[in-house]
Design brief:
The complex is a heterodimer.
Chain A lengths: L4 H11 L11 H11 L6 H11 L3 H10 L11 E6 L2 H4 L3 H12 L12 E6 L11 E3 L2 E3 L4 H14 L3
Parallel strand pairs in A: 1-2
Antiparallel strand pairs in A: 1-3, 3-4
Helix pairs in contact in A: 2-3, 3-4
Chain B lengths: L17 H6 L4 H9 L2 H11 L11 H6 L10 E6 L8 H8 L1 H15 L3 E6 L4 H16 L4 E4 L4 E9 L9 H8 L23 E5 H13 L1 H6 L1 E2 L2 E2 L1 E8 L5 E6 L4 H6 L13 E5 L8 E2 L16 H4 L3 H4 L7 E6 L4 H15 L5 H18 L5 H14 L7 H25 L1 H6 L18
Parallel strand pairs in B: 1-2, 1-5, 2-4, 8-12
Antiparallel strand pairs in B: 3-4, 6-7, 8-9, 10-11, 10-12
The chains are: A alpha+beta, B alpha/beta.
The complex binds flavin mononucleotide, iron/sulfur cluster and FE2/S2 (inorganic) cluster.
Iron/sulfur cluster binds next to helix 15 and helix 17 of chain B.
């Protein structure tokens, strides 16, 4: 993976927000950018590329990428359902929603559907406890989930992918 | 006595734009502060207001500002903590989504008071869409001369940047946040030195919660003395409460501190009472870290006094019979909920979020999680309950950062108030696996609270 021109401009903008010689501060934002550009996950090659852009060592990137739960170090579906399982969501039926998603997609947590489109993982509180149960999909939250809503989300994204 | 100072305009259509916000009286506090006040005068007003940090610890904001070191020729930073990851808390999100200019204006006022020319908003990575909302507000403020160089001709320069995290509760802890902002793992630093002396890039730094920073706007508009008249005693002003769980109207509410807990939970103006006519079992009033309160200690303290939504009243009775206001994450449990399961759930959360630097926290949370899983799944022994008690006591106070305490307190409170429920899981292994303790109505009967 290499950034295109727009992405490189964005890296430049991000780096300019910190004092000179503190470009490492841009690491997390740049990793977000890289993850999207690389199809929703980070492989070693991508991380090394980010290291070279920010002029830091590869290990400094691995250390960070492995610490934060939003960075996927293994391939995930094009659409990753990150379903909240923490207390407030749990008492509003998160377990049932997770079971439904598992059945609906026909894959276990962490596996990708055979068309490469979907996977799911359980995550901890995302700041939507009053609108439980909920999941995160890309940059957005899907809240007040019901089985019907899950069906609709899956259908909508199948269509989006042209299937 | 309902009164709003932060969200009073949040419902107005278009308030997220500079134009409408300005027309509604926005940026008056920034003008007043920059044009007619000195930085020390602003800090003085914030001190007089009695404002206490809204991130969870409740430390007086004005005092924190006055501790900031001011060595000659060294930049100072303001960092806004928008990591908001404490389970049960979603108020900062609401404020930033609905009325982003209030935060931008608060950052201008606060940065001027602190002499900071750069402010970073560190926002949890999952709030990705809010980054765009904030960046748009910042750009608008800049186009209108409220940010950038020589703001309003006063010679004061300020840039605000939004930094996204990437999923780590620990980055809400202020020194972990600074590490993360420097592009590292979120490992909390050993204190001292405190951020006020050595913070971001080793420079003096103030870290404040979104809501604390936003509160500087009404404080400057109305003066600190007037702000201090709102609320009760040392709990001045208003507070955003995130309400979730088995209630009719979950959501974010701005309350005047001093409101009774019963009114907050039962009245239609706020939570609207228990959902589906269920009985109240328990409540975690200030985010997952604070002690759970059983129904009989929620509306009244152990002394029989009315329990109020204030820092003091919620902690009345200490940990034996009280809790904390914390971040204002108000989680309500009805009669069907299982305390053992909830305690297991929260403990799993803390184990997952421990940064792993200190052995009591790293090993202790994992051990507690295993024991709680066993109890919840009918494989526990009576001794496990005492062992849990023992472990949480050994974590508390023995770690670099307060996450260790945050992991201990929920376990301690659950055992303290609901021990019989843990024991039932041991004595009824088969049933424990089949259903929630709470669903066994013939065993557990909580009184229905009087409606407000
Ligand atoms: C584990 C942990 C998580 C925290 N998470 C947050 C958070 O998400 N948001 C926040 O404002 N403060 C959080 N805090 C408190 C901060 O360390 C800090 O006290 C606060 O941001 C100071 O702001 P305030 O004085 O305005 O409240 C957390 C503390 C700990 C120990
Ligand atoms: S208490 Fe836990 S989270 Fe805090 S520094 Fe120690 S190991 Fe990390
Ligand atoms: S518990 Fe699920 S969003 Fe907070």
């Amino acid at each position: 993976m290499k950034f295109n021109e727009t992405e490189l401009k964005e890296v430049e903008r991000l780096v300019s927000r910190y004092p000179a010689d503190r470009q490492k501060s841009a690491l997390i934002p740049v990793l977000h950018l890289a993850q999207v550009a690389n199809g929703n996950w980070l492989d070693a090659e991508t991380m090394d590329y980010v290291a070279s852009l920010l002029k830091i060592t590869n290990i400094e990137v691995y250390e960070v990428a492995s610490f934060y739960s939003m960075f996927n170090l293994k391939p995930v579906g094009k659409y990753l359902f990150e379903v909240c399982q923490t207390g407030p969501c749990n008492i509003q039926g998160a377990k049932d929603i997770i079971a439904y998603i598992e059945k609906k997609l026909g894959v276990k947590e962490g596996e990708v559907t055979s068309d490469g489109l979907f996977s799911f993982k359980r995550v901890e509180c995302l700041g939507a406890c009053g609108y439980a149960p909920m999941l995160q999909l890309g940059e957005h939250f899907k809240e007040h989930l019901t089985p019907e809503k899950i069906d609709a989300i899956v259908d909508e994204h199948r269509m989006k992918a042209g299937l | 006595m309902s009164r709003k100072l932060l969200l009073d305009k949040a419902h107005i259509a278009g308030i997220e734009t500079f134009e409408v916000y300005r027309k509604e009286g926005g940026y008056r506090a920034a003008e007043k502060a920059l044009k007619s006040m000195t930085p020390d005068e602003i800090t003085e007003e914030v001190k007089k207001s009695g404002l206490r940090g809204r991130g969870g610890a409740g430390f007086p904001t004005g005092m924190k500002w006055s501790f900031l070191a001011k060595p000659e020729g060294v930049p100072r930073y303001l960092v806004c903590n928008a990591d908001e990851s404490e389970p049960g808390t979603f108020k900062d999100r609401f404020l930033m989504e609905k009325i982003p200019h209030l935060l931008v204006e608060g950052l201008i006022v606060s940065s001027f008071a602190l002499g900071a020319n750069t402010a970073y908003i560190y926002i949890r990575g999952e709030y990705a869409w809010i980054v765009h909302i904030l960046e748009k507000a910042i750009a608008e403020a800049k186009n209108n001369g409220f940010l950038g160089k020589n703001i309003l001709g006063t010679g004061f320069d300020l840039e605000i940047y939004v930094q996204r995290g990437a999923g780590a509760y620990i980055c809400g802890e202020e020194t972990a946040l600074l590490e993360s902002l420097e592009g590292k793992r979120g490992n909390p630093r050993i204190k001292p030195p405190f951020p006020a002396v050595k913070g971001l890039y080793d420079c003096p730094t103030v870290v404040n919660n979104v809501e604390s920073i936003a509160a500087s706007v009404p404080i400057i508009n109305m003066t600190g003395d007037e702000y201090a008249k709102i609320g009760l005693g040392r709990s001045t002003g208003t507070k955003l409460i995130s309400a979730s769980g088995n209630i009719n109207k979950p959501g974010v509410y701005e309350i005047v501190l001093g409101l009774s807990v019963e009114e907050f939970l039962m009245s239609d103006e706020y939570c609207g009472g228990m959902k589906n006519g269920k009985k109240l079992k328990a409540c975690v009033p200030g985010g997952s870290s604070v002690p759970i309160l059983p129904h009989d200690l929620l509306f009244k303290t152990a002394n029989g006094e009315t329990r109020l939504m204030t820092y003091e009243s919620l902690s009345d009775g200490g940990f034996a019979t009280g809790s904390m206001l914390g971040s204002g994450g108000f989680i309500v449990y009805d009669e069907d909920q299982c305390i053992v399961e909830n305690t297991y759930n929260f403990t799993r959360f803390y184990r997952h979020e421990s940064c792993g630097q200190c052995s009591p926290c790293r090993e202790g949370t994992g051990w507690m999680e295993k024991l709680l899983w066993r109890l919840e799944n009918g494989q526990g022994k009576i001794e496990d309950i005492d062992l849990l008690w023992d472990i949480q006591r050994k974590i508390e106070g023995n770690t670099i950062c307060p996450l260790g305490d945050a992991a201990s307190w929920p376990v301690a409170a659950a055992i303290r108030h609901f021990r019989e429920e843990f024991e039932w899981h041991v004595t009824h292994p088969k049933e424990a696996m089949e259903r929630n303790y709470g669903l066994r109505k013939n065993i557990y009967v909580a009184p229905t609270p009087a409606g407000a």
